[in-house]
Amino acid sequence: MANRRILSLLLLLCAGSLFAQKTSITNIEPRVEALLAKMTLDEKIGQLTQSPGDISTGTDVAKDDLLNQIRAGKLGSILSHTNFQNKITMQRVATRETRLGIPILFGFDVIHGYKTIFPIPLAQAATWEPDLIERIEHIAAEEAAADGQHWTFAPMVDISRDPRWGRMMEGSGEDPYLGSKIAAARVRGFQGKDLAANSTVAACAKHFAAYGFAEGGRDYNTVDMSDQRLRDLILPPFRSAADAGIATFMNAFNTLNGVPASMNKYLVTDILRGEWKWKGMVVSDWNSFGEVIVHGAAADEEESSAKCLGAGSDMDMAGSTFQKGLKKALENGKVTQAQIDEAVRRVLRLKFELGLFDNPFQYLDPQRREATLFKEEYRKTAREAAAKSMVLLKNDGGLLPLNPGGPFNKIALIGPFVDSRSHKDYMSFWSLGIGTPYYDSTKVVTPAMALKPALEALGFQVTVSQVNLQAGNEEVTYKDAIQAAKEADLVIAFVGEHGLDCGESRCVSDLNLPYGQERLLKIATLGGARPAVMVLFNSRPLTFQWANENIESILAAWQPGYETGNALADVLTGKVNPSGRLPVTFPHSVGQVPLYYNALSTGRPQERQGQLWTSGYLDGPATPAYPFGFGLSYTTFSYEAPKLNKTTIKSGETLEVSVTVTNTGKVAGVETVQCYIRDLVADISRPVKELKGFEKITLAPGEKRTVKFNITEADLAYWNAQSVWKADPGKFLVFTGGNSRDVKEVGFELQK
Ligand code: GLC
Q: Ligand 1 pocket, 51 CB below 6 A?
């Protein structure tokens, strides 16, 4: 009997392997060389050219006839193409109607989900849960790959400290340690263990580099920074993505210290390819090669082609700069054939690694597409992620969660985002295809759709007043809302930003609630007389002074995606205890920007507002409204002082930090225990805090747990004045707590 069972198991395993996904493609290099040797110069330049598909995500560029371009061997890749049937046709033309049959590479911005839309990346960062983020990207990759995409232009790993910048929503916030953990998780989620599998896509670390420090928070603007800050703050998440095996990088639009990133040899050749020994393919940003001319760093396409290719950048996204100038650059000796060949190798290598030469249509299977897109299980993860991303900023008197038997019975749901059916809301510009038939905003669960029945099921009476802010005449516009507020015991106001008002080229000079919403809050809460909850739909830190002072509970919901309403219902009714923690600092006012936790002490740190001769303001605080790492729960946690296994460590030794946390409240909750260090005396001034560890724990009421963090000399190193990554001996502090402000500390020494 046993033998028969073993035999049947063996047969099953064999059968399984017959249909298992391809294993990684082997023997690539000889195939790359053999193909390269056959290619003409035009065919090589064609492989370095990428054209836009049926969605434009940038400035207007000549709309090529894609099929003719492919047939002529002038195109190696297409970005932002949504039409599945078109992609099949294009792949057929590329592989059957061209001289060498080189497959087309399809790229797409899969930024926070592909067809199933997840919370924006900044919201995902607020979960402080890399494993969840990896799961999200795995789902996004499954849907994208099933729809014929081979390559996502993500993760965006730009550190930023400037909420005026519209693209903060695409990243993981202000901290390099959190950003590095998330960058690696996204690469694992997208690429999995096998790029040739038809459920994974190549990822792309962007924008290399320092795009998030554009002056004035204005997109595409100048970036100037010390090498010390570049190395210490900006590069770690890129290094983390490179070390995680990311397949591609993307240039940034900005200049860095005067040199456009697309032609920045220091970044692309010296650091990325030299120091880090990264061997992948670098794609420009949208026409960023052509914009080198506009930056005034090249006279024409010939010079720009030479400078960008010469810096180590390989593929020209939109704008056709290489088509216009690379051949001339070669003829005039500004680039070498070897440089062109090396760039082409990187493109061909990626196509081999994706399995495109072995089966150009493996990502274009209509049955698989039908079976994969919009799976119900994907929405469950979207709902989990949205609920976990929400950050409870204020909850005076424990007004939340809403449960029966409390002081409220009639609840008025009010505001422009209580039941918006517009594709502009709860998502972002990067829910690509937004506003087109490709993108179905009716799949969004709005707050009213989920919260009204959920609250009614608990016995509450609920009214809904969707307010159109652009109406103009506020009294008329708000009439219903005012009436609803008068008749209610509690108002829940849904305010904030349109999702479409954030993202690329959507920067703001004012962080206050837009469209006069603060006035709506005052009116709808009857001047603050009505107990109220403010649910904020934000893609970045916003400022809301009146609400901070007059509204009992404030929940930052970010742009939560398809499961907006269900996640809000879960959190507001207490089905899910909020556990989000801020990945960025929330200032009191835009005038404080940039404001961040890992700042230098200055020679005159301010201890209290108004203290003269110190680094502060006459007209307001120098501290944030809500600090990095902050978030409340429906329970409370207490922290004992951190304990160390030793008070000095030498090179090679590990400092073990232990901290005991107790749930001192009445309900179970999830706490993100955070560990920071400070280098008290170094060769140069160092930040007053640096995140070096975090761990999410779930505690039942009364339960306590000891969390441990290991600190080594490598964790204490920084890019010093001699341009060396090194730790200085001397005294340090360790801080532990539930955010970057409310911490307890203990000292130790690093001895050389
Ligand atoms: C855009 C963005 C970049 C995106 C690319 C393709 O301009 O800067 O992040 O991947 O173009 O859409």
A: no
Q: What angle do CA 221, 225, 229 make, to 5 degrees?
A: 130
DSSP letter at 590?
G
**504 ligand 1 Cβ < 6 A:** yes
pLDDT at site 257: 98
| 280 neighbors 250 (Cβ within 8 angstroms) | no
The CA R_g of the chain, rounded to the nearest whole Å, is 27
Give the angle 228-230-231 at the CA atoms, nearest 5°.
65
Residue owning the nearest CA to atom 11 of ligand 1: 286
The fraction of the chain above a pLDDT of 70, given in percent, is 94
Ligand 1 proximity of 345 Cβ (cutoff 6 Å): no
What pTM was estimated for this model as a whole? 0.95
**What is the Cα–Cα distance from 746 to 1, expressed in whole angstroms?**
65
Neighbours of 294 (CB within 10 A): 13
Q: Is 285 a residue of the active site?
A: yes
**Which pLDDT score is estimated for 462?**
98
What residues in the chain have per-residue pLDDT under 70? 1-24, 61-64, 433-439, 470-477
> What is the 8-class DSSP label of residue 107?
E
Would you state the pLDDT for residue 470?
Answer: 65
Q: Strands 77-79 and 690-699: what pairing? A: unpaired
Q: How far is the CA of 56 from the centre of ligand 1 (A)?
A: 10
Of 47, 190, 44, 32, nearest in space to 108 by CA: 190
What CA–CA distance (Å, rounded) separates 540 from 511? 9
Give the count of beta carbons closer than 10 Å to the beta carbon of residue 154: 28
Distance, in Å, from the CA atom of 303 to the CA atom of 294, rounded to the nearest integer, reads 12
- pLDDT digits 0-9 by tens, 525-564: 989 889 999 999 999 999 999 999 999 999 999 999 999 9
Contact call for residues 390 and 521 (beta carbons, < 8 A): no
Show Cβ contacts of residue 128 under 8 Å, excluding neighbours closer than 6 positions.
178, 581, 583, 672, 694, 696
- Among residues 285, 316, 570, 715, which one is catalytic? 285
Which residue puts its alpha carbon closest to atom 10 of ligand 1?
A: 153
Concatenating the DSSP letter of every residue in 647-682 gives SEEETT-EEEEEEEEEE-SSS-EEEEEEEEEEESS-
Give the integer Cα–Cα distance in Å for 729 and 131: 35
Q: Which domains does the chain have, with CATH numbers?
A: 1-106+253-374 (3.20.20.300), 375-584 (3.40.50.1700), 637-751 (2.60.40.10)
* Contacts for 467 with CB less than 8 Å, ≥ 6 apart: 414, 415, 416, 418, 477, 478, 480, 481, 520
Q: In DSSP terms, which residues pair with 259 in a beta bridge?
A: 256
Contact of 656 with 645, CB cutoff 8 Å: yes
506 touches ligand 1 (CB under 6 Å)? no
The first and second tokens of residue 379, run together, are 């929405």
Q: Which atom of ligand 1 is nearest to the CA of 58?
A: 7
Ligand 1 centre and the CA of 285: distance in Å? 6
- Residue 57 CA to ligand 1 center (angstroms) comes to 6
Integer angstrom CA distances of residue 220 from 29, 161, 491, 582, 609: 38, 16, 41, 26, 35
Angle at CA 594, nearest 5°, toward 593 and 600?
Answer: 135
Residue 591: phi and psi, rounded to 5, are -65, -20
The number of beta carbons lying within 10 Å of the beta carbon of residue 13 is 10
Predicted local confidence at residue 20, as pLDDT: 35
Using the mean position of ligand 1's atoms as its centre, give its distance from the Cα of residue 647 in Å. 49
Q: Which two tokens stand for residue 506?
A: 């959507």
* Nearest Cα residue to atom 8 of ligand 1: 285
